[in-house]
Each structure stands twice: as structure tokens, then as C-alpha cells.
Amino acid sequence: MSESTRPVLETMIDKDGREYVCTRTAPCGGVDDAFVGHNQAIPVVFVPGIMGSPLIATGDNRDIWPKKLGKWAWFPDDALNWVVCGYGKLEYHQRRRLLDPAKTRTLASPRDVDMKTFRKFFKGSGLPAEEAVRRGWGSVMISSYGDILLYLENQLRFIFYRGRPYPGTYGAMPLDPGAWGELKGYSKLSEETLCRAAAWRFPVYAAGYNWMESNSKAADFLKERIDAIRRDCRSRLGLKCDKVILVTHSMGGLVARLCAKRNPADILGIVHGVQPATGAGTAYARVRGGWDANLSILSPFASLESMVGAWALGSTAWEVASVFAGGAGPLELLPSQLYGPGWLKVQYGHGRAAETVVSLPEKDPYGEIYRERDRWWRLIDPRCLVNEKDQKKPHRIKEEWSKYTGQLGYAHAFHAELGGYYHPQTYAHCGDDAGQPAWHEVAWQLEPLVDSITGRRAPRPSPKAALEATLLTDYKDGRCEIHDRSSAGDVLFSRNGAGVVAHSAGNRYRAHLGGKDDSGDATVPAHSGLAPRDHSVFFARIKGFEHQNSYKDEAVKAVTLYSMISLAATAETLP
Q: What is the pTM of this model?
């Protein structure tokens, strides 16, 4: 091990981003030892998930707010004042208008950051808030992602300390790797690996993006941020750098994958966390049933963070669908063509006795499900796209439906371009916990209703009847009533022992969404979360955390640090 990898004094970061050391001078005749950091760097760029980036309103959507709530279209870090007291009170059509992707943008400069809210997180953190803002940390939801950003910043500052692994590095060197979960591609970090990784500095940046726009646009925006980050690293921090490492959460993994596919030379590797790699049935279930908040008495504060989704998109299906349909980004979380066939089911009965009548899609979820306008099992009710006044104006509904199908077109194109691409140096982890279930398959379960005329309970419908039934009532919470008009006609039945013929209006059913059917992280089912495994150098299948808070889990942090050190060790020294 070279002396250059043995820091004697811990450095700190000043408000201008420069490393410095404070120590008492040695007594007369003694020698002061100080560690001078390396002059080559691998910037670490964190890419958040959906709703993980604050958004600024740029058009007439600013008129929705009282002036005291300012410029924001989405600002979850001030949850009490902004989300609960402001955003949570908006009508569904106001939320849709506020989050219009054409009238919102992510934070473009440090001047956009709400420093009062931002500074609350940095008390005693060891990194000046001014430097964090310059590195883009204000462009992400700091209350959710601040922990992992600081963890990586602090743990990667030193990999060795006084000739031994830095204390935090031991987190990536478990005595029992199985304690992390089920692992693929794990090998113990060797001294050579630690030495090679320790030859680099790792300034941690963050890159928020407009999550209402297509992830295709976000991928190009990420490329711009990578170029800006490398310029900042070279000019302001005075470090040589070439490639970056991307660390992603959830939908940020989709953004990073397409960015890497388009710009492979810029990226050393990617560390993916809880990525809905092929989409999630949960997205469909939330659009039709409302956002599930996962509130728990056992973990109230973590649960409150998970309620941000319910506040953002809505607790009812009508609210969720209205916002969801407004941008390609949310739509790209739906099951893609790689998710597999038959994930949307219509079943007769409940529990183990439930019989599957029909399954969709056969091949294309866009054509067979998402573009359907009139079927009762559709994704979007066209009326939720306009305000209550316009629901009686067919031309307005037609206009908004056209906009929705346009966004679907962007989403479809994104999924087609991304395909099954993964960066060759992919390290990934997912949640696979039966205690945190999610929707893989989504089942509409049919409860037969009794005909008031004949007293007959509706029988198991044919596949055609189940698909083509008429929607009578949608309760906008995952329940609806449907009518099979094709079964109407004269029916012979028994009344008081005598045969009677009467006209039946047809079979009726109450349909409701079945429960979560797959282990996962309460949002992404293991079915999708495990998809990157065969494309990864290293993959961890972990239990014990919920989706939004995954990077606050100790095993996830350790796996991420292990992945970072392993990746950095593969980098070629810069001239």
C-alpha cells in the first residue's frame, strides 16, 4: 500500500468546495504530517425517482397558488406548509394544470434553491450548505435523499485511514455477506481493490430533472448535467476527471439507462436502487384505485414520507389519473412491453376460489390497455382530464384525450428505445420482502350481483362478456359496477315451484381491485425489481425497507458503498 493512500489527518470541505485540514502544530523539532488529496476524481451523480425533484411553475399555472406559496409547482421538502396546507387542498384539475410538463422546470441554478428550507437539513452535517447547493443537491428532495448524499460524500472522502480501511469502509466489508440478502457477483474487497479506489476523489453531485416530462428528455438533460459537473470539477475544484458514476433511485434508473445508452463513454458505471426496470403493476393499480400511503403506527415518520405520493397525485383514482395522464414521465412507470403478457386479469370470485376469465395484454399494453377509452377496465377515464364544468363538453374531452394519447406516444417511444439496455458496469439492488408487497399482476375480481327480477345470481361471464361489459358506476377507489348487456333477454326460472319466464336486463357484477400479489418494496414488485439481475456485475436482493426510504436502510447503504468502491477500482488512472 503506497503512502499516498494513507491519510493521517481528516480533511474537511469549506464553503467554496476546497478541502482543508485543521490541526495543532507539532512541538519544536517535531514533524507535521498532512494528507494531500489526489488530483483525479470520479464525480458521483445521484439521479432521483419520480416526485424526487422540486419543480418551478413557469407559466399561468403560477396563478393557482396564493402568493405566499411562491413559485413552486412541486416542493415536498416543506411538506407541512406546502403539501398539506397548500397542494393537498387543490382540486384534481388544479393539480393537473399546476404540474403541466410544458409549464414547469427543474432548478437551474443555486439561486432557485429555497435556502431557508435547505439549510435545516445541514445543521451539523459537516458539509457547508453553500457547497451542497453548488453541487446540485437542492435540485432533489433533500429530506428524502440527503442521508445517502451525505453518506457517500463522507464515506468516500477516505477509503483508507492510517494504513487501514477507514472505519466507514468496513460497512462494505461484512463478516457475513449473507446478512445483506441474496447476492449475485459478490467478492470480498481486496487490498488491491481498496488501493485502486483510494486513488480517486469522489465529489458527490445531484441531478434533479422534470419528472413530468418523458424520461427521454430527462436523459438528455442528465447528459447536460454530466458535462456541467465535469466542467465544475475541473475548473472550480481543480481536479482531473473524465467519467462519472451514476447512483439512481427508482425511476431515475430508467433515466440513467437511456442516458448511458446514448452516451456510454461518459459513464464509468451505474448503481441502481429499487428500479422499476420493466414497469410496475402498482402504477396501474394506483391510477384506478388511488395512491396507497402505507401509513404505519410502528414507523410514523417514515410512513409520513411515503404519504407524499398520496398528497402529490391524490388519494382517489380520479385525482391520480388526472395528474398521471398529464405527462409521459409517470406513464413510463406502467408495465412496458418487457413486463410480460397477461398481468391485467379479470377474475370471477375471490381468494383461492377465484377463476381467471381473461388476461391482458397479449403483446402490447399500449394498444390493448392504455389507449382504451371506453372499456370499464381502461387506465384513464376521459372525464378526469377536464374540470367539472367541461365534463359536459365533448370537444373539450376530445382535446384532452388527444393530449393524453400524445403523452402515451412519448412513453411508448421511450420504452421502445430503452428496450433491455443496461450499462456493462451495472451494480444494482432491489427490495424483495413479503412484508412489503406490491402489485405484479393486477386482478379485477368480479362479485356477482342478484337480478332483482329473477332472483338469479350472475354466473361466470365469458371472456368476451367480461371484456365488453358496460361500466355503470365507478367509485374511483378501485371499485366499480358493470353490466353485461349481452346476457339480457327472456329467462326461465322457478318461482314457488312453478316455471316462470321473465325478461332480465342482463348480468351485473361489482368489480374491485385485488390486493398486492408479489413481494417487493411496497411499490416495485420483485418481478420488475429483479429484472436487472442478469445484466449486473453485482446484484443484491434485500429485505426490510420501503421504496421511498430505501436509501435510509443500513444494508442498502452498505451495498451502495461496496458497489462504488468496486466500480472505482476499475477506473484507469488519468494522465
A: 0.91
